[in-house]
Design brief:
The chain is of the alpha/beta class and 490 residues long. The protein contains 14 helices and 21 strands. The strands form 5 sheets. A 10-stranded mixed sheet has the order 6-5-1-11-12-13-14-15-20-19, with helices on both faces. It has a 5-stranded mixed sheet with strand order 3-10-7-2-4. It is globular, with a radius of gyration of 22 Å.
C-alpha cells in the first residue's frame, strides 16, 4: 500500500494548478522562502512513484478560459466604481443577477467557486459573450480529464471515464484510453455521437476591482450547465471497462455536477456510485502487503476528489454516502467548509474557510473524520469493506495530509510536499518564490482532546528549511502540513 500516497499526490499536482495565485507575499526574507522551498523539493523527491495503471472518472469537458472582466463587459454587466455590489451566494444561478451576486461573494475574498446555471437561455448568453471575447483560451477540462493527462505524462497507462467528443479527444495524451471505446469493443452497436461539454472559467487577478470590492488574490469562478456529466453518464461504461483494464488505482471526481438535479435523483445516482465502487477489488482492512494475494483481494484503492458545491443538502448526501466508502479524499477550503457544515459542524463559521489558517483546517477535519468514523461500529452493514484512511487538503497557502497511522500508508510528508510545490514547478520552475504561511503556528488537539491537560489544548509547530513539513500524531491519525511556495512573477 505504500504506493497509494505517492500516487495520489499527483492529484494535487494537477488540481493545484487550478488554485494558483500570485500574492504580494509576506515581508520575510526571500532567502528564507527559497530555503524552505528547496527543503520541500528534497522531501518531495525522496520517493519515486510506484503505480502504473490508473482509472479515472467521471468528468471531462472543454474549458473556455476568459478574463472575468471581459466576460462581464461582453454581457453588459457593470460594477460601477464607488458602488458596493450585492454579494450573495446562490446555490445555483438562474439569472445574470445571480451570477453577478455570487461572483461578487467569492471574488471579494479571492475564493474559488463553481456554480451550475439552471436556465438554458442564460447559460447560452454567457457562453456566447465569452466566445466573443478576443482574449480566450480553450483547454482540456474536468477533474478526471485533467488528471488523466497528468498521470499519462508521468508514464502511466490511463483509463478515462468521461464524455469525450472530437475536439476533446485531440487534447488527450496517447496513453489515455476512453472507457466508452473499451466497452464499445464488447458492444459494437453503441455508436451514438458524443458532443463535448463546455465549462466556462472566468479568471481574475489579484487587486481586481468590482465596484468597491477588491480581490485579495487571483482566482477563478467556474460556470457550467453540463447535461451529460451532470447525470454521470460515463459511470456504467467506466466501471465495466475497469474489469478489463485492471487498474492499480481508481480516482473518481465530478460528483458535484449532479447538483442541478433534484434530491431524489441525486440520492439514487450516488447509490449507483457506491454500488459500483463495491465491485472494485480493494485492500481489506487489517491485511498487510505480505498477505496480499493469499486469500485477500488485490488492492485497488479509490480516491474521491471533491469540487465546489453550493447545496448543503447535496454535500451532506455525498458526505454520508460516498465519502465513508472511499480510501482517500481530496478537497480545498470551500469544499471543506461545505462538508463541515453539511455534517453538522457549527463551531466554525463559513467565513473562516475563505482563507483558512491551519488550526481551522485541523479542527474541521477532526470533526469530519470523527463524525464519519463508524468503522468499528458492530451495527455498520459496511464493516469489512472500504474505509476512509486519508485526506489531502489543498488551499492557496498550504497543503495538509491527514492519514490513519494504522492504515499502512507511506510517509505522507512526501505527498504533501509534492502537492504544495505543484503549481510553482509549473508556473515559474521554483524561481523567485514566496511562502505566505507563517513558519510558526498553533494547532488544536481534536482527535484525542480528553487525553490532554485542560490548559494545553494547542501545540506549537514550526516549519524550517531542515524540516519544511510539520508532522504530528494524534491517536490513530498522523497530520502533515507543508506551505505552498508561491511564484512572485508567474
Amino acid at each position: 500500500m505504500s504506493k497509494w500516497a505517492v500516487a495520489v499526490l499527483f492529484l494535487a499536482v494537477t488540481l493545484g494548478l487550478w488554485y494558483y495565485l500570485s500574492d504580494k507575499g509576506s515581508s520575510s526574507s526571500p532567502h528564507v522562502h527559497l530555503d524552505i522551498a528547496m527543503g520541500l523539493e528534497r522531501v518531495a523527491n525522496s520517493t519515486a512513484p510506484a503505480y502504473h495503471r490508473v482509472a479515472i472518472g467521471y468528468n471531462a469537458n472543454l474549458d473556455l478560459i476568459v478574463h472575468a472582466a471581459d466576460m462581464f463587459r461582453a454581457l453588459g454587466v457593470s460594477f460601477p466604481p464607488g458602488i458596493t455590489p450585492i454579494a450573495k451566494d446562490h446555490a445555483q444561478l438562474d439569472s445574470l443577477d445571480d451570477l453577478k451576486e455570487t461572483f461578487s461573494f467569492y471574488a471579494g475574498s479571492g475564493s474559488a467557486a463553481e456554480r451550475y446555471v439552471s436556465d438554458s437561455a442564460t447559460f447560452q448568453r454567457i457562453i456566447d459573450a465569452a466566445v466573443s471575447v478576443n482574449d480566450k483560451v480553450w483547454h482540456l477540462g474536468g477533474n478526471a480529464g485533467l488528471m488523466a493527462n497528468r498521470f499519462a505524462q508521468e508514464g502511466c497507462d490511463v483509463l478515462l471515464g468521461g464524455v469525450v467528443g472530437d475536439r476533446l479527444g485531440e487534447m488527450l495524451d496517447s496513453r489515455v484510453q476512453i472507457a466508452r471505446e473499451v466497452v464499445k469493443n464488447a458492444h459494437p452497436e453503441a455508436n451514438d455521437k458524443v458532443t463535448d461539454e463546455i465549462h466556462l472559467i472566468a479568471e481574475y487577478a489579484i487587486g481586481s476591482m468590482w465596484g468597491t470590492l477588491i480581490s485579495p488574490r487571483a482566482n477563478r469562478f467556474i460556470i457550467v450547465k453540463d447535461e451529460t456529466n451532470a447525470v454521470l453518464q460515463p459511470l456504467e461504461d467506466f466501471h465495466e471497462a475497469i474489469g478489463v483494464f485492471s487498474p492499480s488505482l481508481v480516482v473518481i471526481a465530478g460528483l458535484h455536477l449532479l447538483e442541478g438535479k433534484d434530491a431524489e435523483y441525486r440520492a439514487a445516482r450516488l447509490m449507483d456510485v457506491v454500488d459500483a465502487l463495491d465491485t472494485i477489488k480493494h485492500h481489506e482492512h487489517g491485511a498487510d502487503e505480505e498477505t496480499m494475494g493469499q486469500g485477500h483481494r488485490f488492492e485497488s484503492p479509490v480516491h474521491l476528489e471533491l469540487a465546489s458545491i453550493g447545496s448543503t443538502q447535496f454535500m451532506a448526501q455525498i458526505g454520508r454516502t460516498v465519502v465513508p466508502v472511499v480510501d482517500s479524499l481530496g478537497l480545498n477550503e470551500q469544499e471543506l467548509g461545505s462538508l463541515y457544515e453539511s455534517l453538522g459542524g457549527t463551531n466554525l463559521p463559513r467565513t473562516s474557510f475563505r482563507a483558512p489558517q491551519v488550526d481551522t483546517v485541523v479542527e474541521a477535519l477532526g470533526y469530519i473524520l470523527k463524525n464519519l468514523d463508524i468503522w468499528d461500529d458492530s451495527t455498520n452493514p459496511r464493516k469489512g469493506l472500504r474505509r476512509l484512511m486519508r485526506v489531502h487538503f489543498h488551499c492557496l497557502t498550504f497543503h495538509m495530509v491527514v492519514q490513519r497511522t494504522s492504515g499502512g500508508w507511506s510517509d505522507g510528508a512526501v505527498s504533501v510536499a509534492a502537492g504544495s510545490l505543484a503549481a510553482s514547478r509549473q508556473a515559474c520552475n521554483m524561481v523567485d518564490v514566496d511562502v505566505t504561511l507563517a513558519t510558526t503556528f498553533k494547532v488544536p488537539f481534536v482527535m484525542t482532546p480528553s487525553s490532554k491537560e485542560q490548559d494545553n489544548k494547542f501545540a506549537t509547530k514550526h516549519i524550517t528549511a531542515d524540516k519544511p513539513v510539520a508532522t504530528w500524531t494524534e491517536g490513530d491519525w498522523t497530520m502533515h502540513v507543508a506551505p505552498v511556495a508561491v511564484c512572485r512573477h508567474p
